[in-house]
Design goal:
The structure holds two protein chains of two kinds.
Chain A lengths: L2 E6 L32 E7 L6 H10 L7 E7 L9 E4 L7 H4 L2 E5 L3 H14 L1 E5 L1 H13 L8
Antiparallel strand pairs in A: 1-2, 1-3, 2-5, 3-6, 4-5
Helix pairs in contact in A: 1-4
Chain B lengths: L3 H5 L9 H13 L12 H26 L5 H13 L6 H11 L5 H14 L5 H10 L3 H20 L1
Helix pairs in contact in B: 2-3, 3-4, 3-5, 4-6, 5-6, 6-8, 7-8
The chains are: A alpha+beta, B mainly alpha.
């Protein structure tokens, strides 16, 4: 089953309990700041089952930055939101890697409460992680060299 | 809370120009509502970098006083610490590194996270003993993991040197 990928700041997503066992009351309010919607749509990328395109998505997002630092993200199994009322819409992304742009989707968020509910699902059932700055910068260099990341000099 | 032992060794704000302390306090105060995003500049980061560039060592002393005495918003403090590590300013490198090492033991997880990110950017193996100690003490699993990753990076850098 594929995953949803969302860039976040990991310090807002710390979770003491094992996956699936956290209390709603412990989710930091600041975490909502990492799920900003535009026109009630939440931007996400689809990561393959085998995580084969994870690094490429991360590099593309970091390459979009002015000054790439570490990249924090949260991964959530796509099936975790099945039946919860969210509609997935195919929409190309806007990174310097065209293949990564094809892995982009928007999730329609009908109202604020559903955004809070989604934040809890991401937090309680997802995994947060960090790619360190040194590695991300190498990944970007590799992506440019491989012709995957469009480089504007 | 900051332990008494750390407060004794914290820099005093009494011996620096009050106007500069107020200037930096104001920069922090105005940043409370800002949304920070990894890899992106912010009004705060630009102002902070300008302040550090203009006042060099004195700026770091003032910043140290505010951060170590925990007189500023933790989220903004964490953001500041990232940039303390990012900036290229050779003459203040040792004192910036020292500030980051001390902030590894701050009471706020956001501050500790900012400090480890700053140290990763500096990539200086001299920080290894401090990061080792921080890994041992860290109670938040994800942050401990991030600290451990930086420790491995520093050890690799040492091995390559």
């Amino acid at each position: 089953m594929p995953f949803y990928f969302r860039k976040v700041r990991r310090a807002k997503w710390y979770r003491e309990e094992p996956k699936g066992q956290a209390s709603r009351d412990d989710l930091q309010a600041d975490a909502l700041g990492d799920l900003r919607t535009q026109e009630n749509l939440l931007s996400l990328f689809i990561v393959d089952d085998d995580l084969g395109n994870l690094d490429r998505i991360a590099a593309a997002l970091a390459a979009n930055s002015v000054n790439p630092g570490n990249l924090d993200y949260v991964l959530l199994e796509r099936q975790a939101v099945n039946g919860l009322g969210y509609t997935e819409i195919s929409n190309p992304g806007d990174t310097p890697d065209q293949e990564v742009n094809n892995a982009h989707v928007d999730l329609a968020i009908p109202n604020a409460q559903m955004l809070v509910d989604l934040a809890f699902v991401f937090w309680n059932q997802g995994d947060s992680n960090r790619i360190q700055r040194k590695r991300i910068q190498q990944m970007i260099r590799d992506g440019i060299e491989a012709g995957q990341i469009r480089h504007n000099s | 809370m900051v332990s008494p032992a750390r407060l004794v060794n914290s820099p005093s704000l009494e011996k620096v120009p009050e106007s500069l302390v107020e200037e930096l306090r104001q920069i922090f105060f105005e940043a409370r509502e800002e949304v920070f995003e990894d890899g992106m500049d912010s009004v705060f980061s630009r102002q902070l970098v300008d302040f550090m560039g203009s006042h060099g060592r004195l700026a770091i002393d003032i910043l140290s006083g505010l951060l170590l005495l925990e007189k500023v918003n933790a989220e903004v403090a964490g953001e500041a610490l990232r940039h303390v590590g990012y900036i290229e300013h050779p003459s203040t490198r040792p004192v910036r590194r020292r500030l980051l090492e001390r902030c590894l033991f701050g009471s706020s997880a956001r501050v500790r996270d900012g400090a480890i990110i700053g140290l990763a950017a500096m990539d200086d193996p001299q920080s290894i003993p401090f990061v080792e100690q921080a890994v041992e003490r860290e109670s938040i699993a994800e942050l401990q993991e991030d600290m451990q990753a930086v420790l491995e990076q520093l050890r690799e850098t040492l091995a390559e040197s």
